[in-house]
Predict the structure of Transposase-associated domain-containing protein.
Amino acid sequence: MVVDKSWLNNPNRSSTEYNDGLNSFLELCKGVIDKRGNVFCPCNKCKNSLRFPLRKVKNHLFGWGFWSMYKVWNYHGENFVPQVVDVDDVASENNMGDALEDLMQVDTNIEEGNSDTQSSEAGDDFDDLLKELQSELYPGCTKFSSLDFLAKLMHIK
């Protein structure tokens, strides 16, 4: 359900646009009235912390205006629709190989002047990461390497 909220930007609360928008909002609120006949008041003073009858909510919204931080009216019948992200797009945007190469360049710049054994160990660690980057997550998997999977898992965690 798409709700028109353009009236909220009108600073003139006595305008027809604001009044019509407010009446539409109150109609939406009728679906979420509690047992006592109250709804959360989204005015600048109450900020959805108190419940009142619709008539008092209307008076508050005329007097103090609508709370600007209340964007999705989930307390008043509007459903939140999360943005869906296509996993294929995310996987193609993340280039783990470039990130590893950048990391190795930074690492070698930092370790200049250190002994050859330390840089040899760092090189071996880097080679291990590259092998993980090139290995399949499971046989036949072409979308994710085992390193991609671990990075995404750690990000979720």
Summary: Residues 6-76 form one domain. The CA atoms of residues 47 and 95 lie 43 Å apart. The chain is about 50% helix and 5% strand. The chain has two domains: 6-76, 87-156.
